[in-house]
Design goal:
Elements lengths: L3 H9 L7 E5 L16 E7 L2 E5 L2 E5 L3 E5 L5 E5 L5 E7 L22 E3 L2 H18 L6 H17 L8 E2 L4 H15 L15 H8 L3 H12 L3 H19 L4 H7 L5 H12 L3 H4 L1
Antiparallel strand pairs: 1-7, 2-5, 2-7, 3-4, 3-6, 4-9, 5-8
Pfam family, one: HTH_18
GO molecular function, one term: DNA-binding transcription factor activity
Protein name: AraC family transcriptional regulator
Length: 284
């Protein structure tokens, strides 16, 4: 039986532009999982009853379905039947050249992530998955390019299908759930592993937009559950990451400032000194 840990190990040894993996769900470890922290896109053909927790929504899946998950949105599965079959494909955002998951209607934040499929669509989509698995298991030198074409067929087929509309808010402990989603998304922004990676979300408004909630709702929930403001959490994580980068890398301070979202070094210096009492250079 395979697990998500095996995927992480597999991807760690592969160039981001070639990071794709396809699995048969019947041979995969299926059990209730907490919100996943992953850095890749996922497309799954679900054959078997499950409950999908996606951002602040809950979706009952009781028929063959395609599901899409964006790296920025936390999600979790709860199997509702013993029989769990189908396939899923994981790939890095860099895998599809000249294509952005954030801009696709299939992966857009706030979009419906579930598409119910009929028998004909199920058979066709299953064939695409099997073709990808066969090619990726081969010694063909251009197998990643070929699998990329199969994946595009899968995406285009999905865009022909009307999304499911059975989503509904998860009411229980709404504030705790919203705060948990925020903290999970905040955690996903770090660590900053190279100077070219720029912090995407820096304000409470940024996080509210990605979680599809009003910023006042987010602020109220985070304050109620944690006792700290949304901005306090964001600021604290940025300061912590800045300290790690200053101590453990040889990047110049201007590069650190830029990757943490500061357009000008002066802004970063003032920000860091405000919350630590010293300049970045003195701290280093």
């Amino acid at each position: 039986m395979q697990s998500l840990d095996s995927i992480t190990t597999h991807f760690s040894s592969v160039d981001p532009a070639d990071q794709i993996a396809v699995f048969d769900r019947s041979t995969f470890v299926v059990r209730p999982k907490p919100y996943n922290r992953r850095n890749y896109c996922k497309i799954g053909l679900i054959l078997g009853n499950v409950r999908l927790y996606y951002a602040d929504r809950e979706i009952e899946i009781d028929r063959p379905s395609l599901i899409f998950s964006n790296p920025l949105v936390p999600y979790a599965f709860e199997p509702l039947s013993s029989k769990q079959e189908g396939y899923f494909c994981l790939f890095s955002p860099e895998y599809l050249k000249n294509w952005s998951a954030r801009e696709s209607p299939l992966f857009r934040i706030g979009a419906d992530p579930v598409f119910f499929v009929d028998q004909v669509q199920q058979e066709y989509i299953s064939g695409i998955y099997r073709n990808m698995m066969r090619e990726l298991d081969s010694d063909y030198p251009h197998k990643f390019d070929l699998a990329r074409h199969h994946l595009m067929l899968l995406l285009h087929e999905a865009m022909k299908i009307k999304p499911a509309t059975t989503c509904f808010p998860y009411k229980k402990a709404a504030a705790a759930r919203t705060a948990s989603l925020f903290l999970t998304l905040l955690d996903r922004q770090f660590p900053i592993e190279h100077p070219q990676r720029i912090l995407q979300l820096r304000t409470a408004s940024d996080y509210a937009t990605h979680l599809s909630v009003h910023v006042n709702t987010l602020n109220r929930a985070v304050k109620e559950v944690t006792g700290k403001t949304t901005t306090d959490h964001i600021t604290g994580r940025i300061i912590d990451e800045a300290k790690v980068l200053l101590i453990n890398t040889n990047w110049n301070i201007a590069d650190i400032a830029y990757c943490l979202g500061f357009e000008y070094l002066t802004y970063f210096n003032n920000f860091f000194k405000k919350y630590t009492g010293v300049t970045p250079g003195y701290f280093r």
